[in-house]
Amino acid sequence: MIMRDVAIVGVGMSKFGERWSSGLKDLMAEAGIAALEDANISSHEIEMLYGSTMASGRFVGQEHTAALMADQLGFHNIPAVRLENACASGGSALRQGYIAVASGIHDIVVVGGVEKMTDVTSGEASTALGGAGDQEWELFQGITFPGLYALMAKRHMYEYGTTEEQMASVSVKNHDNASKNQYAQFRRAITIDDVMRSKMVSDPLKLLDCSPISDGAAVAVLVPLEKAKKYNDTPIKIVASAQASDTLRLAERDSLTEIKATKIAAQNAYKQAKLEAKDIDVVEVHDCFSIAEILAMEDLGFYKKGKAAKAIADGETTLNSKLSVNTSGGLKGCGHPVGATGIKQAAEIVWQLRGDAKERQVKNAEVGMTHNVGGSGATAVVHIYKRAD
Amino acid sequence: MIMRDVAIVGVGMSKFGERWSSGLKDLMAEAGIAALEDANISSHEIEMLYGSTMASGRFVGQEHTAALMADQLGFHNIPAVRLENACASGGSALRQGYIAVASGIHDIVVVGGVEKMTDVTSGEASTALGGAGDQEWELFQGITFPGLYALMAKRHMYEYGTTEEQMASVSVKNHDNASKNQYAQFRRAITIDDVMRSKMVSDPLKLLDCSPISDGAAVAVLVPLEKAKKYNDTPIKIVASAQASDTLRLAERDSLTEIKATKIAAQNAYKQAKLEAKDIDVVEVHDCFSIAEILAMEDLGFYKKGKAAKAIADGETTLNSKLSVNTSGGLKGCGHPVGATGIKQAAEIVWQLRGDAKERQVKNAEVGMTHNVGGSGATAVVHIYKRAD
Q1: Domain total for chain A?
Q2: Which residue of A has its CA nearest to B62?
């Protein structure tokens, strides 16, 4: 297997949030044009598009969204494929784009994610998102997605003494980071007390433990590393791309307190990159719920099982502490338009490694990671990035 | 770009039809187990899964269907990605599977498509399928999918004198082929008169000009050609894989009487295979409506524009005539569970090239083709196949 190195030479995002006056196509254009401009590339140079949306059929009646994005961005007649892996759709698209360039099939590939979630009621949105789990054996029986993560949280509390205040500290940190991000849905700090007093969603998860319903898009341009300087002075190299799956059904997993797909994907990514957890300077992890960030910090190898919650509460993962986690604000603070999230994570790491993250810049960031989860853990995608120069 | 040859060593299908007592997972298992048995391979050898479903979220509330299929078929913890390109989802999955093996990223890849459409009303199914077109600018304005193809049919009739009886002959031929296919939804012959007297759906398209709502699944196993004989005595080589896109909006196309994406994909496929249209012995084309098969025969280069309808009516494309077209029964006769169709087409060509197509066997079939279209032509995927020995 002969593989080429792959670099990201352009990224773009729409503002995340409740974008009442913007449709699916507007969001695609906003992020897409920004990414093409960032890569200093014209639309007719693009050879392939991997698009990601999760449930656009249920949110806005639109399937076939990759061909739509290719059309909207002026990529005339190129192959375009939509990928859907629930909330890991974006990470999955990034990985397929990486494979297409690494293998030499294509030179210039765009990966673009979008979701327009606010055109339906929050009840309808929850039902649509429930499609990420096993419809017949979980959702149809009455459990909601917050309910699945609440089960994991309860078990983590039981086994490791994790507290609700510790979980709340994840949201406090992520809102703090989001307050420094112009693209974020929630640009305001919150306190532990705010989280603890927010409405109960599914015991022990409260409203402010949960990522929001959001509209938004994110786009990245991938090229072979050897050609990257033509497009951007600070290309960011993808040094690992790994993905794993697991049963959709929480009840059939080996453990309620770990995401096995994350562990497998992380192990494969570290191996490919020849790096260890301690080498990572900045990471975007999948904090769909506060407990999910705690699981991620453990399953990615940053902390031993049962040790992450206290470390986060102690401030070890705030901006420019021991390890800067979710500097974008994460899913909780930046917003979670599901199909866009995995690519937004990559955009944030690109900005961090370029030194372009402004107020939220991690000092001397050299190695970054993204971690994107689908459903309650049936899919996990991990990428590792380095400055190319 | 160094590429390996890729072969299909196993295919399997569920019975297509109104499968009231079978859910999404049952259909996956029925086709998947058949494909694994055909390839004489065990589930733990599979390295990657590309799954295709179009609108499972709207049909059965289930997204994240590739991870679900990986779980259902016992492919523990491998990367699994769902692809969605409307009715071309299956062809798109096959192409990504081809790329994964050809590039050397993976050795053993499964591509599997499924759709469970009959759990909703036909009105709800039509609305879901409408997501293949431009929701804001076409469907929301009131046009249906049959309506879009009816516009193409009307223009083809106006420009080339194509008649309703000629269109009807497509359905008659495809039902005749379906009557010989154990997996087909409609195993009965029909007459021109039956089609002409069937209920008008969208003038000039009548009920029997339209492919049905179906449940079904189809699965294929792909490996490098050099390893193929380990799994199957008659591996079928994929000699070309090409895909193209176009605007989703019919009104913005250059022409109403051709599918530009088909033309581009076909040109690229012929070039890759170093073959011409006259070299093809058996082809599965995308006959979602009878007019679509006429367009396909022209856009794939088998007939000059405006000449296919008469040729089909004259019997030039019946079984073992000049060119055997849609020996499976096509979408019309075999059924059209949208996510499965592109992979079912490949299964039919594999059986034909192996000489295993029984009653519907094309004599001396050496070169086969599949043609899968998404929406009203915004995606087209073309593959060409040969016996490997």
Answers
A1: 2
A2: A131
